[in-house]
């Protein structure tokens, strides 16, 4: 009987987690009226500012799985006092940051205080209904509110703040028909370098959060594209009346389809915003608005775009990717008027000085006017050609390494190479024809096509920190270990500087693998058993990813190898490839090297902070060649 009574008391306290109406806070300054809403980390009440007689909203920090309401109905208790105290202090810092925000479309925070063993902040009460309560809206009406929210996001992003909980329920429409963004309960603040300063528990709303938000490390760096994903999901909801699919389901292969009644033009915007890869989304609010404005009104003659075009960034959409020319030649750049003016003035000065000694003043101005144009254009053309040649040389300084005629003279199936007392293995890959891509993956993995690969060698493991330090004399990695972890925080350009020095030390011709070589090796080459991941169908057995990494890299070759004896081609760190990012062609190819130009280079294999879906052998990702991140590494290849 006693046990039953204790159980009943516990159930009562767990269910009565909010403060009863009529309770006073801050020495009677505020009176609670009713509960407005409750989330995983707090409770929002309607309250009364007793001195002003003004209705306000009051947010109480109350993580429901950690805090308990005490018997007096107001105070809270928690078991781990040190952790809870730190979180309360972080909550207060966030509230004070919010109090500094002043914007027409953002709710104002007017007071912050501690009481009842927890913390509170007070906001203006927005009289009206949320977009969640408004139901399905006409697209023009919906986009009016969306533009207002976008303006609010631009403002907070300029202050290095991410809201991280954009959804219809957090957008109120006030009595002036104005959208007001509320609930900054899980927002994060970042420093000038884009590193996170807020350390409160990461939260998310499943249908409105991208996959990176579901792991703390995924939002460790400032990225407006995370909020833009949620904005796209919000558009999906308020214009269709349907809840958008959860991003993890999209990552698992579910396809985002256009809801009945949503125009094709708006679906293109939503699809871009809800791309799984953050770099495929608009990277700023301004870029989002450009995308929104670039879509013509629906008139039955929608512009045609393939699904592959949906996965390209706005910059890539402006580039027509051409096949790599066999012997590319420098192209003259489009003439730049200011530059021509500069060279024309220079030509005029030279002409004036020269002809002043030959002709009288009457002829000078006429001759200079003629000569200035001819000489200026000539000088500019010479300058343009030289600049184009230099750019061409920079872009192609390593191309000879990717020629099939370059050989290292390797003959063994496993070649052991030593440099400065560090030894690494290169595995021989027997060439064959394989099916590259996937019909069950993302749009940029299609179409599946035949690719023929010649024999080559590839690193048994990712390049380790030990090897990098033996060649470069330093270790740039964020996650330093005993030298056997993969080197990371290296750009595509850094990799080629390493390769240049390695080749000088060894007399060999190492390089990065092409994307086709990488996928062929990851699949197991001519021994492939068609696994989803490199080496098996169980990601935990073959790779380090967000589900088992503990938010760090691990020593190479500690998981099961694939059919060719290669380790970590799924997980640990993403691996740079040679190729520019481009769309697949349906035709057959032999030793392809990707498009001839682009803005981002391919990375493959997923990493320690990515979901399992990113570790699939056909999954494609990409990054700027100058980007350094603690999930970017590489492995070597050679003929």
Spatial order of the strands forming the largest sheet: 1-2-3-4-8-7
Distance N terminus to C terminus?
A: 79 Å
Which regions contain 5 or more consecutive residues with pLDDT less than 50?
Answer: 1-15, 297-340
Tell me the quaternary state: single chain
By secondary-structure content and strand pairing, the structural class works out as alpha+beta
Question: What is the mean pLDDT?
Answer: 83
Radius of gyration using CA atoms only: 30 Å
Strand content: 15-25%
What is the helix tally? Answer: 16
Envelope shape: globular
**Which range best describes the helical content: under 10%, 10-25%, 25-40%, 40-55%, 55-70% or over 70%?**
25-40%
The tally of strands reads 24
Largest sheet: 6 strands, antiparallel
Can you describe this structure?
With 639 residues, this protein is of the alpha+beta class. Helix content is 31%, strand content 17%. It has 16 helices and 24 strands. It has helices spanning 2-15, 81-99, 131-134, 139-157, 225-240, 247-251, 264-273, 285-294, 307-310, 314-317, 337-355, 361-396, 465-472, 492-506, 515-523, 539-542, and strands at 24-25, 30-38, 42-49, 54-61, 68-69, 76-77, 109-115, 118-124, 128-130, 161-162, 171-174, 179-181, 188-189, 414-419, 422-429, 432-436, 449-453, 456-459, 574-580, 589-590, 601-604, 620-623, 632-633, 637-638. The strands form 7 sheets. A 6-stranded antiparallel beta sheet has the order 1-2-3-4-8-7, covered by helices on one side. Strands 14-15-18-24 form a 4-stranded antiparallel beta sheet, sandwiched between helices. A hairpin with a 6-residue loop joins β5 (68-69) and β6. The longest helix is centred in the middle third of the chain and has 36 residues, at 361-396. The radius of gyration is 30 Å and the shape is globular. Residues 299-323 have a biased composition (Basic and acidic residues).
């Amino acid at each position: 009987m006693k046990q039953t009574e204790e159980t009943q008391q516990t159930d009562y306290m767990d269910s009565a987690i909010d403060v009863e109406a009529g309770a006073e806070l801050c020495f009677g300054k505020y009176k609670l009226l009713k509960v407005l809403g409750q989330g995983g980390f707090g409770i929002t009440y309607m309250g009364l500012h007793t001195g002003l007689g003004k209705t306000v909203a009051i947010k109480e920090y109350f993580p429901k799985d950690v805090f308990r309401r005490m018997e007096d109905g107001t105070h809270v208790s928690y078991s781990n006092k040190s952790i809870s105290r730190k979180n309360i202090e972080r909550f207060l810092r966030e509230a004070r940051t919010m109090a500094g925000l002043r914007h027409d479309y953002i709710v104002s925070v007017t007071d912050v205080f501690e009481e009842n063993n927890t913390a509170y902040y007070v906001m203006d009460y927005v009289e009206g209904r949320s977009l969640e309560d408004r139901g399905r809206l006409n697209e023009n009406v919906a986009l009016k509110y969306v533009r207002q929210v976008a303006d609010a996001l631009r403002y907070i992003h300029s202050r290095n703040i991410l809201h991280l909980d954009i959804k219809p329920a957090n957008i109120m429409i006030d009595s002036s028909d104005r959208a007001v963004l509320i609930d900054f309960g899980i927002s994060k603040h970042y420093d000038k370098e884009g590193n996170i300063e807020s350390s409160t528990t990461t939260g998310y709303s499943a249908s409105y959060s991208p996959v990176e938000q579901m792991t703390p490390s995924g939002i460790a760096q400032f990225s407006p594209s995370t909020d833009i994903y949620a904005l796209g999901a919000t558009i999906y909801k308020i214009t269709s009346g349907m809840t958008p699919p959860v991003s993890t389901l999209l990552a698992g292969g579910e396809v985002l389809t256009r809801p009945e009644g949503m125009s094709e033009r708006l679906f293109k915007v939503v699809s871009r915003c809800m791309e799984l890869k953050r770099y495929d989304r608009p990277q700023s609010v301004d870029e989002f608005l450009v995308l929104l404005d670039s879509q013509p009104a629906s008139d039955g003659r929608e512009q045609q775009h393939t699904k592959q075009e949906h996965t390209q960034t706005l910059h890539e959409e402006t580039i027509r990717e051409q096949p790599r020319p066999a012997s590319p030649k420098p192209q003259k750049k489009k003439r730049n008027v200011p530059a021509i003016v500069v060279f024309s003035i220079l030509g005029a000065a030279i002409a004036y000085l020269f002809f002043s000694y030959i002709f009288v003043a009457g002829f000078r101005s006429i001759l200079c006017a003629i000569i200035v144009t001819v000489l200026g254009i000539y000088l500019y053309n010479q300058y343009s050609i030289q600049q184009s040649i230099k750019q061409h040389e920079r872009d192609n300084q390593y191309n000879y390494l990717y020629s099939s005629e370059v050989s290292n003279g390797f003959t063994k199936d496993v070649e052991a190479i030593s440099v400065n007392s560090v030894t690494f293995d290169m595995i021989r890959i027997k060439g064959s024809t394989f099916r590259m891509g996937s019909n069950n993956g993302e749009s940029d993995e299609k179409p599946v096509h035949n690719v023929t690969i010649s024999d080559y060698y590839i690193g048994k493991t990712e390049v380790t920190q030990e090897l990098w330090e033996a060649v470069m004399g330093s270790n740039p990695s964020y996650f330093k270990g005993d030298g056997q972890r993969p080197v990371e925080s290296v750009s595509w350009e850094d990799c080629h500087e390493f390769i240049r020095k390695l080749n000088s030390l060894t007399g060999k011709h190492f390089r990065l693998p092409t994307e086709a070589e990488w996928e062929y090796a990851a699949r197991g080459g001519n021994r492939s058993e068609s696994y989803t991941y490199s080496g098996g169908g169980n990601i935990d057995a073959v790779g380090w990813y967000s589900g088992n990494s503990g938010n760090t890299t691990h020593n190479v070759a500690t998981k099961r190898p694939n059919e060719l004896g290669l380790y970590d081609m799924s997980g640990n760190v993403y691996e740079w490839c040679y190729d520019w990012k481009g769309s697949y062609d349906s035709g057959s190819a032999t030793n392809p090297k990707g498009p001839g130009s682009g803005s981002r280079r391919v990375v493959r294999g997923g990493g320690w902070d990515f979901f399992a879906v990113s570790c699939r052998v056909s999954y494609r990702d990409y990054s700027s060649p100058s980007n350094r991140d603690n999930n970017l590494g590489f492995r070597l290849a050679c003929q």
